Amino acid sequence: MGLLTADYNMSVILAVALLVLTLTKSFMCTTTNGRLIECDKCKTTYLGEGGHWHEYKCDPIGGSFDVAISGFSNKVAWLVFCAFHIGKAVDKTGFGKRVSLALVKAMGRSALGLGYAVCLAELALAPFIPSNTARGGGIVYPIVESVIASLGVDPQGGESAVGGFLSLIGSSANLISSSLFVTGMAGNPLVASKAASIFGIEFGFTEWILGASMPALLSMFMLPPITHILLRPKLDFRQLTYSIHQQSHSLGSISKEEYRLCGTLLTCLTLWVGTSYFSIDATVVAYMAIVMLILLNVLSWDEVIKNHKAWDTFFWLASFIVLAEQLTALGVTNWIGNSLSRSLQGASPLLSTISLSLVYFFSMYLFSSISSHVVAFVGPFFTAGHVLGCPPMLLAILVALFSSMAGILTPFSTGSVAIYASQGYISQPKWFFYGLILSLALLIITFTVGLIWWKLLGWY
């Protein structure tokens, strides 16, 4: 309720939550002999074996605070924190803009070509920039907007098929690319963490991209033609070539910092993809990248300190991880999951999996934040799937895909979508309609090609 209604930063709300839960001793503490109990039972007595009274030896407030700050040592939070700084380097050096402009220049000879250029720009940047808003709104959107202006569209002219076409592709490509990588969106690591804790499966960088690759890439491939059918834009390319040339010229030649950045990024991708061979955790790779970028003078330590978005996300993500873990430890997630599972009793595991994932997808209508949606529903839906005997990897990849893709449903689902929708090239009622059409297309792809792909992988 605080996230939905209060006029406070998300981190402030989480800080208050952790403080209240600490002072009220509402976490699960660990006693000196390793027993897990509610923190408010610390220093109370209980009747043990042989009729003897014993004391729960733990510190109720201190133990609660230990739990409250435990998320700040979580590898998932550190992975996202490091990825934010990598994204800062991509933005600072101009490498992200250079890649995007090169794609538009190479493919911008038709409406579909422009659409695919935007999609490829998002795909190229998604593994390294875990804020979909920073990636879509800070790097790709300005280029899309300049392309729209170059095509002779008046930004104050209201609805426009050309502006709407590129805006809808830009916002949708941002969400689809976010679903392809565990580092594509800040909430994704929460999905991976919950899948590991509830199902006991390995669902890291490699498993995520392997499972998501076929449906996500096919969805990205189909996005421009479907959007073109919906809006039928008529484009004038006379000014576009000149505008892209001017922007590319202003960037100058490739700098030494960009070469160093490219080397670091290639190293990261190699180690991430080859995790099983190199046996280096994905978080360690990301942490190594930050150290390399600093030593290579691509980033300065002052820039790391001043990257407030990274620190802010690190704080609220670590806090959310604690709350999610404690909901499970206290049995709340199981209770919600059991309640959900009762409505599907008697259904086959595959039908239960599809039903849960569809409810999860369309529940996005109730949220104005993808991260809030993930935090609220991933745990209960995974628990319900566990109770119903759903194939763990199948449910995990469906929820992983739908956590981002569901944002296509509304014009207010996340910051990047809101930026595109606020330009007014598509009216809000039409945005809902187009969002529903695109969502149905994504669901059809997921439950046809996706299910075949996951069957071949042996995930169900």
From TrEMBL:
Cleaved signal peptide residues: 1-26
Protein's membrane topology: Multi-pass membrane protein
PANTHER family reported for this sequence: DICARBOXYLATE TRANSPORTER 2.1, CHLOROPLASTIC (PTHR42826)
Transmembrane domains' residue ranges: 208-231, 284-301, 313-337, 357-382, 394-419, 431-454
GO cellular component, one term: membrane
Keywords for this protein: Membrane, Plastid, Plastid inner membrane, Signal, Transmembrane, Transmembrane helix
Pfam family, one: Na_sulph_symp
Main location: plastid
Superkingdom to which the source organism belongs: Eukaryota
Species annotation: Coemansia brasiliensis
Compartmental location: Plastid, Chloroplast inner membrane
Protein name, per record: Sodium/sulfate symporter
Molecular functions per Gene Ontology: transmembrane transporter activity
Family: Belongs to the SLC13A/DASS transporter (TC 2.A.47) family. DIT1 subfamily.
NCBIfam families: dass
Keyword hit for Repressor: no
